[in-house]
Amino acid sequence: MRQVEVALGERSYPILIESGLISRAGAQLHPYARGGRLVVLSDENVWRHHGSTMSEALAQDGIEAVRILVPAGEGSKSWAVLGDLLEKLLALGLSRSDPILAFGGGMIGDLGGLAAALLKRGCGLVQVPTTLLAQVDSSVGGKTAVNMAGGKNLVGAFHQPGLVLIDPDVLGTLPDRELRAGYAEVVKYGLIADADFFCWCEMNGFALLEGDAAARLHAIETSVRAKATIVAEDEREAAGGRRALLNFGHSFAHALEAEAGYSGSLLHGEAVAAGMALAMRLSVAEGLCPDEDAMRVAGHLRVMGLPTSIPGQDPQRLLARMRQDKKNASGRISLILSRGIGQAFQTDAVSEERLLSFLQHEVSGGRSVA
Ligand code: GLY
Q: Which atom belonging to ligand 1 lies closest to the Cα atom of 230?
């Protein structure tokens, strides 16, 4: 079994990665199941594919899975669904010492994580991510949130899990589109600070998508190690801290997702892929980054079936969305840009006028999505 530690003093926790781990999850989860039961939050798709494996794994260790299901999709990451979930958890009589097991993709982790942060001012949380995106990014680091009309992830809390269990085998039932979308977050770690890993992605991305177990394991472990290191340095995304780098591509992505109405027409990872390609091109336009690096990144995303732009946007509306970004301070838009592959950095030096002109050029017209 691979193990990565998120080193946060008394809130440190392990990330365990192993093929088939869910079918043995009872042994890992036994210490969390007080009174012989464990509340499992999941969505209808995940439960259909993996619910019986999880229930049986818990039952083998004498734990009853008390399941709460929400509809699949980003639409469930809402204030209304959160309120309903909290009422259900209270009706079950959960105490602070009873953890919520978030068993699903990014939506389930964020929703369950925020419920755990709020319930009785904070109860325990265990993450068992079932999508590539959640396995390499959102299940680690304690960010929880729901979406609001004003934008993505605008209401949330930092609430670290006590344990993350990653079973790469569950990716076998993930739709191809979701796998590709999650792969964008894998590429992100190469682009932020690890040019060698980006080369690895170029060489092994196809194998990963096609189901190569060793490639999946390597990508997951490398990604969570990179994330754990950054989170241990800067848990709460302090001003000027390194955690903001994990938002590479996300300022554009969150605005694009909000414009798409969190509808499923644009998955988070797809928006991140387009956002990363846009961040690279803006870096080139600002004279910061070699053009060939931006072209290489766009080329890799494109061959992996990911978008490198989302055309047909209203640039003024996108800019207004970007003004809501959580990284912004002192009335300036903060962006993660790049000096080259593996060299991301944060800056507020791009004026709104230059950003608007870039958006007008890049996403308002009929530029090709692929
Ligand atoms: N997904 C970005 C972060 O966790 O900071």
A: 5
- With 0-12 / 13-18 / 19 or more C-beta atoms within 10 angstroms meaning exposed / middle / buried, residue 347 is middle
Structure tokens at 267: 């998955």
Residue at token pair 């068993």? 103
Q: In which region does residue 265 sit, left (phi positive, over 0), alpha (psi from -120 to 50) or beta (all else)?
A: alpha
- Determine the atom of ligand 1 nearest the C-alpha atom of 142: 4
Q: 334 C-alpha to center of ligand 1: Å?
A: 16
Ligand 1 atom closest to 237 (CA): 5
Q: Per residue of the chain (370 residues), what is the pLDDT tens digit?
A: 999 999 999 999 999 999 999 999 999 999 999 889 999 999 999 999 999 999 999 999 999 999 999 999 989 999 999 999 999 999 999 988 899 999 999 999 999 999 999 999 999 999 999 999 999 999 999 999 999 988 889 999 999 999 999 999 999 999 999 999 999 999 999 999 999 999 999 999 999 999 999 999 999 999 999 999 999 999 999 988 999 999 999 999 999 999 998 878 999 999 999 999 999 999 999 999 999 999 999 999 999 999 999 999 999 999 999 998 888 988 899 999 999 999 999 999 999 999 999 999 999 865 444 4
d(CA 96, CA 90): 11
Catalytic residue annotation:
121, 143, 185, 227, 237, 243, 247, 250, 254, 268
How far apart CA 321 and CA 151 sit, in angstroms, is 7
Distance CA 176, CA 345 (A): 31
Ligand 1 atom 3, closest CA: 246
Q: For residue 207, with 0-12 CB atoms within 10 Å meaning exposed, 13-18 middle and 19 or more buried, which class applies?
A: middle
